[in-house]
Amino acid sequence: IPSVSSIVPESCLLIVVGLLVGGLIKGVGEKPPVLKSDIFFLFLLPPIILDAGYFLPLRPFTENLGTILIFAVVGTLWNAFFLGGLMYAVCQLSGPGLNHIGLLANLLFGSIISAVDPVAVLAVFEEIHINELLHILVFGESLLNDAVTVVLYHLFEEFASFEQVTILDIILGFLSFFVVSLGGVLVGVIYGVIAAFTSRFTSHIRVIEPLFVFLYSYMAYLSAELFHLSGIMALIAAGVVMRPYVEANISHKSHTTIKYFLKMWSSVSETLIFIFLGVSTVAGHHYWNWTFVISTLFFCLIARVLGVLVLTWFINKFRIVKLTAKDQFIIAYGGLRGAIAFSLGYLLDYEHFSMRDMFLTAIITVIFFTVFVQGMTIRPLVDLLAVKKKQETKRSINEEIHTQFLDHLLTGIEDICGHYGHHHWKDKLNRFNKKYVKKCLIAGERSKEPQLIAFYHKMEMKQAIELVESGGIGKIPSAVSTVSIQNINPQTLPLERVIPALSKDKEEEIRKILRTNLQKTRQRLRSYNRHTLVADPYEEAWNQMLLRRQKARQLEQKMNNYLTVPAHRVDSPTMSRARIGSDPLAYEPKEDSENLPIITIDPASPQSPESVDLMSEEPKGCSGLPPSPEEDEEGLVMRVKEPSSPGTDDVFTPGASDSPSSQRMLRCLSDPGPRPEPEEGEPFIPKGQ
């Protein structure tokens, strides 16, 4: 019935089914079964936690780990002591019916009822599709507060049997929190590494690969519970640690088996838990006390709201993405209680806690209120407040490249600033994982495969599977390689890729774009490292020389602007020899030829090591000496000029030809004036020359 399931969460419907089944069993005169704590903790809870831990979205979880830990540890401690203290006050003030309940019993009750339940949160939040940040904050809190709940529960249970509680007992109880939480994580990491190492050698027995994942995960949970450590923390740690290495080693069929079996197993457990919760409500012994039950419900809500408001005010001082008022409301409203609280209450011993039935009645009331009232109204409230929903988008190679690029960029910024933050330690861990851990836990060439390539193979496989399932294997696009198709369906022969036909114009346009862009990519500057930069002793002198040269060029341009007649075009050496041969008298050296300037040619910058040596070019006989036969044959003589030292400037360093008269002669040569036109009929080269 879609209209009902869209309004009422599945968990509420299952509890109603349990109540009907329990009432039916009781109506026929039989005793309904009760959800025993051993069955719940040993068989029903582990599949749900393993499914949550194995498929945990690791990136948002680690980025918000500080916020999650504050809500899970400080928030749960606040709820337990606030609720326990106020309930003790209510018991003392309410009269003879409740005043026999001591402080330790109320604190124990507060520790049981204060923890947010992961099963209830998963059941409700999966249906409303809340955004990833809020989902991971509430769900992460429900997973990690198990350590606090376990410590407080066993602590107050032990203290109840003591005649006197000393300061040393309280200090040891505080230290036991770190032992329980960190010990559970350590047990989970050990079993996760063992599972990953085992999967390295299962290439010839693919059938039992999924078995190792379930076996080692369950062993981690049992080992933690055996030593009164946090079994939930152990399961989460085992799932998170083993997943990347196991998935690299096992076959695709084993990966599919693990995924769907875990989903099915956790769904069955969740269904049984809520049905048994309804049956146990009918079958159990209840003691109703209006004052105690209503006070418990009211103080639970008040403690949750106050805790979220105060902790969020503190957390927002350190967060970049602040938690808004809408986010705080959803976090406070999403603190659902569930079967863990009921099972812990069911475990209480009648000898030390004679009020056990009243505690169970109050716990069931709180569970029903949070699951039915809050669970049913949270979806309309999310729509009313316009809280951001989860966007179902497929990850792409482009997104993965930019994500890795931003990670490297932020790590580099942290290194430059000298601030060793989240990205710095994440980069260190990734380098250690790539250098040592992958080589030990991943078999074959996959251990050396870059993360981007592995992600591409995963996407390619997923796309190929969707293609096969949709029946479109006859129209394989070029993005899907035939290797992936062979892995999925080895019986079918790989089909050839369909290459689209391009027109000549389109092909030429693509070639032009590629040619232009590929040429641009080659024009790169030499990379440098800020730690290896060495000061150049000639750098300052070169800079001064360049400035002087620039000023000289600007001055020359200004001087040329005053010339009224354009300068005579310089002939090539061939034309010069032709003119000299045709009219030698016009090119005879004059009396003041000694003062003619030397024309210097500077074909390249002086600081370039490949630059051509500076040359001096003179016409024949301009030095005042009679021309030798060799010079007569050669025409123009190129004389080598001494290169300047790095600290000097050949523009402003005075030389032999830099006198004022030489400068005036240079001006006259650049402006020779009008020349007589040759008469008509006169040959360019006279006869006999």
UniProtKB/TrEMBL annotation:
Pfam families referenced in this protein's UniProt entry, alphabetically: Na_H_Exchanger, NEXCaM_BD
The keyword Zinc belongs to this UniProt entry's keyword annotation: no
Family: Belongs to the monovalent cation:proton antiporter 1 (CPA1) transporter (TC 2.A.36) family.
Localization in the cell: Basolateral cell membrane
Catalytic activity: Li(+)(in) + Na(+)(out) = Li(+)(out) + Na(+)(in); Li(+)(out) + H(+)(in) = Li(+)(in) + H(+)(out); Na(+)(in) + H(+)(out) = Na(+)(out) + H(+)(in)
Gene Ontology biological process terms in this record: regulation of intracellular pH; sodium ion import across plasma membrane
Gene Ontology MF: a single term: potassium:proton antiporter activity
Residues in Cation/H+ exchanger transmembrane domain copies: 8-382
Coiled-coil stretches noted in the UniProt entry, renumbered to this chain: 504-531
GO cellular component entries: basolateral plasma membrane
InterPro entries assigned to the protein according to its UniProt record, in alphabetical order: Cation/H_exchanger_CPA1, Cation/H_exchanger_TM, NaH_exchanger, NHE-1-like, NHE_CaM-bd
Keywords: Antiport, Calmodulin-binding, Cell membrane, Coiled coil, Glycoprotein, Ion transport, Lipoprotein, Membrane, Palmitate, Phosphoprotein, Sodium, Sodium transport, Transmembrane, Transmembrane helix, Transport, Ubl conjugation
Domain Sodium/hydrogen exchanger regulatory region: 479-564
Domain of life assignment: Eukaryota
Region annotated Disordered, chain positions: 585-689
Name of the protein this chain belongs to: Sodium/hydrogen exchanger
Bilayer disposition of the protein: Multi-pass membrane protein
